[in-house]
Write a structure and sequence with these properties.
By secondary structure, the protein is an alpha/beta fold. It has 3 domains: 304 residues, FAD/NAD(P)-binding domain, CATH 3.50.50.60; 105 residues, no CATH class; 138 residues, Succinate dehydrogenase/fumarate reductase flavoprotein, catalytic domain (Flavocytochrome C3, Chain A, domain 1, Alpha-Beta Complex), CATH 3.90.700.10. It contains 18 helices and 24 strands. The strands form 6 sheets. Strands 1, 4, 5, 6, 10, 11, 12, 13, 23 and 24 form a 10-stranded mixed β-sheet that branches. Strands 17-18-20-19 form a 4-stranded antiparallel β-sheet, sandwiched between helices. Strands 7-9-8 form a 3-stranded antiparallel β-sheet.
Amino acid sequence: MSQSNKNRSTINPIESALDVDSADEIRWSDSADVVVVGWGAAGASAAIEARAQGADVLVIDRFSGGGASVLSGGVVYAGGGTRYQKQAGYEDSPEAMADYLKHEANGVVSEQTLARFSRESVSNLDWLEKQGVRFDSSMPKYKTSYPPDGVYLYYSGNEVVPAYGNSKLQARPAPRGHRVVAKGQSGATFFAALKQSTLDSGARALTQARVRRLVREQATGRIIGVEVWVLPEGDARTERHKKLDELVAKWRLYQAPRAQAGRREAAQIENEMGEKRFIRAHKAVILSTGGYIFNADLMEQHAPAYKPGWLTGAAGCDGSGLRLGQSVGGVGKDLHNISAWRFITPPSAWPKGLVVNARGERFCNEQVYGAKLGYEMMEKQGGKAWLIIDGSLRRQATWQCLFGGLWAFQSMPALALMYKVALKGSSVADLARKMGADAATLQRQFDEANAAARGEREDAMGKSKDMRHEFKGGSLFAIDISINQKMFPLAVLSLGGLQVNEDDGGVLDGAGQNIPGLFAAGRTAIGIASSRYVSGLSLADCVFSGRRAGRAAVVLHDVVKAPAMAGAGVAALEGIGQS
């Protein structure tokens, strides 16, 4: 038995694999056919699916389960002709859905995987309903980043933006954001159903337990188990550890230093009280621990420009699954890819204004989904931008904030920005001077936008006709929407992860070969949502990739193959557990 050097994070250390000649060398405290590390949406989906294939399943979570899925809006991106789309009067097809998603995926996964994801979308939504998740077909009146209570189907991405259109495949774009029926943010309700279904399926759960390293059979390279540090039941500090997960989720909103201190305290409890155990995985280990947004080392290495943003995720989103995979030769991919959510709707009047960079130039269609605007701002404009509206749009936006049924987290910042933060100019030149922009450049943006609003030309950024606005004089207001705007936090989350075999979710090594006995799902792995995030795409991918890994971990656990050789097993995997 040998032990390699340790691969440590400042908060959650991950050690190099424990290589053994035989499983008999380890004194195992427990075993299962499939061990799932991380109990969020992806982990739950994997566990339920593996149980459906007859496997004994143990799911391990550092806290009490839920992860970022609990904190999410509970939106599932689904299309291809769901019954809720049909009830709302929309036609959709898997082909139209895949055609749209090509714009968002940008080649991060293959077209075959996009087609499979779209083809299985309806059945995955049906599967969620069988787990106790509820959906509905009610639609909002206005474009929104998140619909109010009582509204559960909406355009959650860029479907209505002309540049993303697929008119050859459908007469009009179909809404695909399926929000879980619940009061308030729907993520907790969404995961509660999956959590209960995990337990009802017969899977076992080990919580307040941190996986520190993988156990590998040296001769074959197969992952045969995990080393986990478990907190003792009934201890006061264990109860404190449970509470910290909840507190950190609350503090992360507007008390980032306090939240970080809570994460450090949780790690200290684990390090001081954790009891080391070894758990055997007879068939496979599935990594599904979320992203790495709270790993300061990885953020500094891969995405330092995003560090001032509002870091979004659960206490366990520290890249532990990524680092476990890397510890046995797994390859991290697109780790620089961060989703930055610069939503300027609601209020729905705001996208009719102009978004410009520090020089006063428009650089993006204002009606796009917030992550698209955030990407353009962060990656091409140095994280700085302004939203300019006039008195007419401000009045419309104010009415929408006060009487439009918006959430407080949508309306209150908007009102504060318009009336407390915005720069006011009596003319374009006056506003440019206060913004520090070039007056001639800014004037040209107004001239071109006004001409497009009057129908004299096409909009330079491709804005649809119903979203164009003519500025007819009067006061102008410039709102700083940059990443450093404290009154308007820019939510950011990590999208990159372990490179996986897209047929089965197996973690790949540097040579493109499956690492025997190791799979990954959700944001720990590269998936559909790993390029350009749209609302609901991550949860939908968690279900898709989680079920994929759960099936393969059981069906293909003894097959070692390269991606090019994987085709023979795809049909079998797709045909299992789709209902």
